[in-house]
Every structure is written in C-alpha cells, then in structure tokens.
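Q: Convert this sequence to structure tokens.
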Amino acid sequence: MIIRAILPVLLCSACFAANIPAGVELHVRLQSKVASNASKPGDAVSSVIIAPVVVDGAVALHAGVRLHGEVKFAKLSKGPEDRATLEIVFNRMEDSTGQHVKIQSRVSEVDNARESVDEQGRINGIIASQTISARMDQGIGRVAQRSSGLAGFLGLVKGAVLKEADADIVYEPGVEMNVTLTAPVEWKGTGAGPNLVPIADTGALNRLVNSQPYQTRAEKPPKPSDITNLMLIGTEEEIREAFKAAGWFTAAALNSLSALETFRAIAESRGYNEAPMSILLLADQKAAMDFQKQNNTFAMRHHLRVWRRPDTFQGKPVWVVAATHDIGIELSPEQRTFIHKIDSNIDRERAKVVSDLLFTGKVRSLALVQRPDVPRETKNATGDTVVTDAAMAVLVF
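A:
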C-alpha cells in the first residue's frame, strides 16, 4: 500500500530513469483470473500497478505500468484437510509504449485475502475443516451418535442456510496484491502521473477543512469513533461513479437479511461485497454514502463513510469522509455480534483511497491539508487505537 509520503509527490508528471532497489513493493491489480483448481503452470498472468512507487522521495514508477508473469505452481484442495496452493511469478514490467524490462519478484501479500503468503511467495489456502460451516457439520455428527433423527433435522436446517466452504484459491480480475522486487531494477520506461490541476485558493480550502467536525460518533452505543481523513468536492453522481470505477461497492442496509448474509459469509469463510456497516454520526447526521472493497473474506475490507456538509467550494458540494481498513473480526460480548478490528494507522487507508480514485482518472485536483486541532491518537467506539498525522486529503472531481 502507498503511505502518506506519496501524497506530496503525486503532482510529478513524467517518469525518469531510476534504479529501483530490491525490497520495494509494487501494489498491483490483477487483470487475469488465476485459480488453484483451474490454472496450470505456465499460464500467463497480467496485472497493473495502481499506486505510485516512491524511491528516495520521488516517484520511480507511476500507476499504469503493467506487470506480466505466469503461474509457477497450482494445486487444488483435495479434501477438507488439504490446503490449495498457488504461486504466481511476475518477471516483466511494461511501460505505456510497450517497452519491457525483466524483473525478479515474489508475491508478498494478497489484499484482504483469507489466504496467507509464505516467504517464498507461495499462496496457501485455508483448511476447509476449520471453517465454522465444517465445525457445525462436526457437531451434527456428534449429535447423530445420540439421535439420528435430530441430527438429520439439524443437517437439513444447516444445509438450507449454509453452503460448504470452498477451500480453493480463486482470484478474479480486480484482486489486488503486493509484489516485492527481489533484485534491483534499472527502469528507463516512460509513464505519466495523474493530470492534476492545482487548487487556486488554498487559503479558502484550509479554512474550509479546518472548520469541519473531525470525529464521528457511534449511534449505538453512543461513543466517539472514527476520525475523518478525506474531503471530496463534487456531485454525488461524480463520487459514486469514481468509486464504482475504482472497484468499490456500496453497503447493504442493516437488517435481518444482511445480518443473515453476514453470518453466512463468516461461516462459509468467504467475502460479502455489500456487507452492512454500523451507523456512525458526524455532527448528528448519518452518512449519505458508504463504500467498501473486499476480496474473499468478511474479516478484511477497505471501507469508508461519506457525509454531506452544508458547505460548497468553488460551486461544488463538499463531503467529508472517514476511511479505515478492517483487518480482522472478533465477537463483542457488549454488542453480542461480530465487530471488525481496524488497522490503527488510518493514514494508510487515506492513501489507499487517494490512489484508487486517482487511478480512475476522474480526480481533477488533490491537496493535503494540515489540521492542528485534530488529535494524533485516540480510540474508536470499539476500543481500537486510532493513529494519524491529522492531515486531510482533499480530492476535487
């Protein structure tokens, strides 16, 4: 993921010749489907870099550079105790003119994935017998030793609600991952950064940003929660179109149907693209929009809430955003439901949102505005620590 240091250098345009050292991470989005139960060694795999790569404070690679490689190894899951495995190797970078440069790399992380990646870059799947769905089957099996009739009934009920977990590794185009260079790269390719227009009245923008409420509040129970970290300036239609183009989904309403689908996603160890979000208030108002990006597990997601503010800037509506990255779930005794745990450094999620929206080409201007009155460390409503540099990223559409 890109970090906050990238924001000040995003206005750079042309790429320059650069020595990119080993250890640098490239954040890429798959353009090919890969699967442990369908892909074969030698199958071509392509992806695209979606966040600028910064070396020594300057952009060495702009978003849009393509990576090409192949499936090195693929093994499907042969049973409930067997892990699927998949290995992808990217060995070439391609610039906008079609020029190729050889690279050595390994996959180091798959974003929001239930699978793990080992030090050699091999992706290891889940064990199906350890999922909640499978453990329910195991429990029904124990009941059958005492009452076959009851076990049969429970099995019918369970089968009507839940599917068996699919332990194979299936990544559709759009899945994102980190690729780490394992050897230096002499990059002489071409490329260009986003075509951004500077914001003329920075004084007015600074006053606007620093006049906004900065901490949300949970509705139930009423506790201080997320810190706002982005401002969007544009129409609702422009914002929705940008997030759709970036591969983000809107959240389902909190109701019995979405609660059931949430339970199913957790039990079946899979994703839920429209998973509901808890209600947070900003200045006593509910969010007007919300967006999220998952992969194949309910436990992890990029997500944010958007509040309409009464202000305008240069004739456009103003919206304030609180974005955080869910990295796990736990059962809350207080709320008697599953709650997400977040990455405490919310600046990383701010940078993720910025890079995703810039990559769509729909952002006209970008700024990073300091907020001296915002606390650098606090807690959210579920007790997670929240750490930030307190700046707000402003994107104009």
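The chain has six helices and 28 strands.
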